[in-house]
């Protein structure tokens, strides 16, 4: 394992999550250091987004605990975790449709990062610039196309000044060129020492950023480690292709 | 994130909005001296207009900005009148009772919000109606009210009729001005941005650090307080209190009408809608049932052909914003790093996909 527990900024222990009779997460343990970039892959229905939701506080686990920056945050809602620096983006973008792009990001800067007016302006403009969105700053978010909505998810999360960013398929549905631009932005975040957890199906894009890869299947982590090793793991190949050696 | 461009600026107002601010101040000053020139009947009508503006602005803040659509706001209108009756009966000066009543209504709405705000969308809307109907029944149980026989704000009768009329006019004008100013300040600040974010997507708002429940509660209580004041003022103009008149769902229907016609989610829209409603009532109010049919038909036509209401359409068509609560980024002309379509910066808000 590549994650010394002592330095773990985010740790989840014994996470179970059930929706009625359906068990989506089963005994998941996860820990990462503040400066890590962790990729999560796995077939549809493996529980990746559910894990991200439990980590971000969108809903609580059925059992298990989550700690962030050394404190137990299991009972804290998403709002409080965001204010601590644990911020997520959504797989299906959730813009504030009736507000402008700038206003979307400003909300995060003033409430998530807790900044005063002028600082929040600067933070919001900085995030928009980083994500290449200054040109559409005054557009209502409902008029944005998919690429810009994905960028807005990222810009808005960034404006909340995360120490750790949870990205849910931020590249999904984009062309390779478009996804490449996002990767450049995310690499810039790495230079700023923001930790990343990134769920993505487009593996070759993910591997440009991830230093560590986790593969999930059927609610469990089946492989965790150096990306090439994980991709070559027989269990991972089995999860994706079925059959073969187990 | 220190590499921030110093060049883009954030604009809150426009040249038009600065002129509008001065115009608003002049209009309020003129309204303040107007009773000297108006007939007694006109003073009463204007008082009604001020109350309509309060109602429309409060419902608009709740539904148009906060996404909290309620069809039970008459509960606060009725309680505003009821508590004023109760306080005056206990010996409080009747004019003072009007405002004390508003505060009590706000205080009552706080515990009410604890469970009502757990409901979403339609459940919240109908739930509020249920609360209104229940409260109506409870008020009927009060011996002072004598069921639907009702009672009166008798202690107001010690004042001379003309002094009373003008005092209530001024109180209504002052209440309207203060409530609109408070609302404008709230919606224009960072809490206002949070309120709109919650309206558009509650989960996303929570995930970027907005305190969803607390923010909704603040808006809910403010709207209750404002509508409570409106109910108390209405009582002062009509003196008599019959529960079924005050707890009637028609009050919420009027609020919805004013906001839909004026333009939901725009600050100016609610005021314009109240004015339109007031004029329709003044001109056609005597037409009995046809008046109500006309109101209904107008609302239907608006929702079909002008879904953004009068002001929403004006704003969209002409980019006119008199009392803007939003933020606009003004980019320097040479910005090239802004991303895809720099020419979009001029069009912006009024665009639709």
- The total count of strands of chain A amounts to 10
Largest sheet of chain B: 2 strands, antiparallel
Overall pLDDT score of chain B: 89
Any idea what the radius of gyration of chain B is? 22 Å
User: What's the assembly state of these chains?
Assistant: heterodimer
Structural class of chain A, by secondary structure, is alpha/beta
The Cα radius of gyration of chain A reads 18 Å
- Using the coordinates shown, work out and report the CATH topology of chain B: ABC transporter involved in vitamin B12 uptake, BtuC
Give me the CATH architecture of chain B, please.
Answer: Orthogonal Bundle
Q: Strand pairing plus helix content of chain B: what structural class?
A: mainly alpha
How is the largest sheet of chain A built, in terms of strand order? Answer: 6-7-8-3-9-10
Give the helices and strands of chain A as they follow along the chain: EEEHEEHEHHHEHEHEEHH
Topology summary:
The complex is a heterodimer of chains A (246) and B (353).
Chain A: E1 8-19, E2 22-33, E3 37-41, H1 48-56, E4 63-68, E5 71-72, H2 78-84, E6 86-88, H3 101-112, H4 117-130, H5 146-159, E7 164-168, H6 176-191, E8 195-199, H7 203-206, E9 212-217, E10 220-225, H8 227-232, H9 234-241
Helix pairs in contact in A: 3-4, 3-5, 4-5
Chain B: E1 9-11, H1 15-33, H2 40-65, H3 74-89, H4 94-116, H5 121-140, E2 151-152, H6 161-188, H7 190-200, H8 202-207, H9 212-238, E3 240-241, H10 243-246, H11 250-262, H12 267-284, H13 289-305, H14 309-318, E4 328-330, H15 344-347
Structure description:
The complex is a heterodimer of chains A (246) and B (353). With 246 residues, chain A is an alpha/beta fold. Chain A is built from nine helices and ten strands. The longest helix of chain A is centred in the last third of the chain and has 16 residues, at 176-191. Mean pLDDT of chain A is 91; it is low at 1-5. Residues 1-5 and 336-353 of chain B have low confidence and may be disordered. Chain B is mostly helical and 353 residues long. Chain B has a single domain, classed as Orthogonal Bundle (ABC transporter involved in vitamin B12 uptake, BtuC). Chain B has a two-stranded antiparallel ribbon. In chain B, strands 2-3 form a two-stranded antiparallel sheet. Chains A and B meet through helix 2, helix 3, helix 4 and helix 5 of A and helix 7, helix 8 and helix 15 of B.
